[in-house]
């Protein structure tokens, strides 16, 4: 610098924006608008979103630019421009996103770059190019949304089919388990019935054997009473070998009461005795008649009965003699 003379600073030369630079600027701005819309939808649906930022950009300048862009979006009729500020976001997008998040977990909601770069402007002016970019983004967004909806619908069908298959497997498993339990119960019931039948048969065999033993003992008692002279013993009603058999508790015992001297009891006892010995039933009846003949019984046995029991014994003998005579006549 010389005395009294200032060298002027070089002025900044602003070159005219080329068509490529204008296309890149418009494309970047429209893409930023699309990403903001996507970001709001993603965050409203509780999904993550990552927006690309230019490296080295001034934060304050970026904040002002974002504010200006947001204000412009309120006036412009761009992507989703038919929605007013603060209006409800598309329920279709939010509903599918919530369903996908629950079914498949959170996924990345980063918008893919629909173009590899800004398309050439050609003969379009900036406004026409901006409208062209918005329409291309809108069509691409719509196509991408349709593909996403189809993918989620297919995933939902697959999930429903898998759930139905799992339910069918569970029902088949439960049915097999129910059949197994029914078979087990039936087998246990059959086993219990078999055990009960075996126990009943054993009890009947034991009872039949006890009755057979009692009938054989009746023979010996008749021999001891009618064929052996026993004078010193005083007999009671229960000591007489009546040709009947009656249940007394668990076992089988001779009759102790006059009421048990019935036709059915005498018939059952003597016919079973004939079967035990393989003897004709008429023969057994004749032998019994001989034993309980009134004259023979009174002369050989009644005199040895206690005085207090004689009338009961006499009546019992008369009843038995009459029953035996009727049975023999019937045969």
Automatic annotation (TrEMBL):
Annotated signal peptide? none
What highest taxon heads this organism's lineage? Eukaryota
Record's GO cellular component terms: nucleus
Alphabetized, the UniProt keywords read: ANK repeat, Nucleus, Phosphoprotein, Repeat
Q: Name one GO biological process term.
A: negative regulation of canonical NF-kappaB signal transduction
Q: Where is the composition biased (Low complexity)?
A: 186-201
Please verify whether the record's keywords include Lyase.
no
Query: What residue spans carry the region label Disordered?
Result: 170-214
* Listed Basic and acidic residues bias regions: 202-214
Q: In which compartments does the protein localize?
A: Nucleus
* Protein's recorded name: Uncharacterized protein
Q: Which organism is it from?
A: Cutaneotrichosporon spelunceum
């Amino acid at each position: 610098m010389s005395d009294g003379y200032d060298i002027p600073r070089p002025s900044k030369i602003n070159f005219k924006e080329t068509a490529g630079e204008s296309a890149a600027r418009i494309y970047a701005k429209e893409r930023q608008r699309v990403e903001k819309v996507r970001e709001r939808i993603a965050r409203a649906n509780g999904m993550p979103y990552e927006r690309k930022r230019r490296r080295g950009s001034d934060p304050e300048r970026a904040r002002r630019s974002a504010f200006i862009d947001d204000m412009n979006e309120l006036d412009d009729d761009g992507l989703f421009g038919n929605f007013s500020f603060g209006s409800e976001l598309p329920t279709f997008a939010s509903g599918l996103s919530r369903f996908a998040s629950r079914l498949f977990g959170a996924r990345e909601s980063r918008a893919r770059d629909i173009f590899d770069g800004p398309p050439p402007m050609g003969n379009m002016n900036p406004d026409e190019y901006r409208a062209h970019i918005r329409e291309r983004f809108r069509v691409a967004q719509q196509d991408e949304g349709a593909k996403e909806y189809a993918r989620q619908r297919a995933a939902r069908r697959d999930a429903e089919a898998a759930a139905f298959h799992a339910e069918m497997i569970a029902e088949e498993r439960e049915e097999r388990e129910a059949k197994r339990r029914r078979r087990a119960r039936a087998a246990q019931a059959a086993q219990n019935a078999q055990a009960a039948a075996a126990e009943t048969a054993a009890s009947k065999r034991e009872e039949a054997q006890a009755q057979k033993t009692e009938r054989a003992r009746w023979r010996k008692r008749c021999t001891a009473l009618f064929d052996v002279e026993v004078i010193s013993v005083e007999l009671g009603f229960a000591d007489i070998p009546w040709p009947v058999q009656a249940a007394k508790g668990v076992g089988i015992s001779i009759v102790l009461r006059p009421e048990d001297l019935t036709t059915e009891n005498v018939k059952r006892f003597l016919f079973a005795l004939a079967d035990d010995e393989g003897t004709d039933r008429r023969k057994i009846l004749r032998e019994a008649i001989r034993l309980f003949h009134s004259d023979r019984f009174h002369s050989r046995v009644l005199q040895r009965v206690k005085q207090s029991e004689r009338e009961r014994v006499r009546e019992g003998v008369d009843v038995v003699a009459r029953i035996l005579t009727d049975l023999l006549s019937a045969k």
